[in-house]
Amino acid sequence: MKNITLALDEALLDQARVYAAKRGTSVTALVRDYLVQVATSDDRIARARSEIRMMSGRDDFAVGNRDWRRDDLHDR
């Protein structure tokens, strides 16, 4: 694992330390988690779009405990 150096305003760092302490974590962990989210967001978006496309091609799908059918939703 690599280390990086950040230059932060002292007041901001103090606020980040308080925020992290309230959540039982560290500023380092907060920054690491944020960067993981940023770095993987495109992959998550692509997977979600793929799943939506797959679901939109089906005539039925389950939501909760109920199976919805197209004809049930659009009373004809």
Would you give an account of this structure?
This protein has helices spanning 10-22, 27-56, 70-73; strands at 60-63, 66-69. The chain has 76 residues and is mainly alpha-helical. Strands 1-2 form a two-stranded antiparallel sheet. The radius of gyration is 22 Å and the shape is elongated.
Characteristic terms for this protein:
single chain; 76 residues; mainly alpha; two-stranded antiparallel ribbon; elongated
Topology at a glance:
Layout: H1 10-22, H2 27-56, E1 60-63, E2 66-69, H3 70-73
Antiparallel strand pairs: 1-2
Report the count of strand segments.
2
The N- and C-terminal alpha carbons lie at a distance of: 60 Å
SSE sequence, one letter per element: HHEEH
Q: What spatial order of strands do you see in the largest sheet?
A: 1-2
General shape: elongated
Instruction: Report the sheet-strand fraction.
Output: 5-15%
Biggest sheet descriptor = 2 strands, antiparallel
The residue-averaged pLDDT reads 84
Helices, by number, come to 3
Unreliable parts: none
- Radius of gyration equals 22 Å
Instruction: Label the structural class.
Output: mainly alpha
Helix content: 55-70%
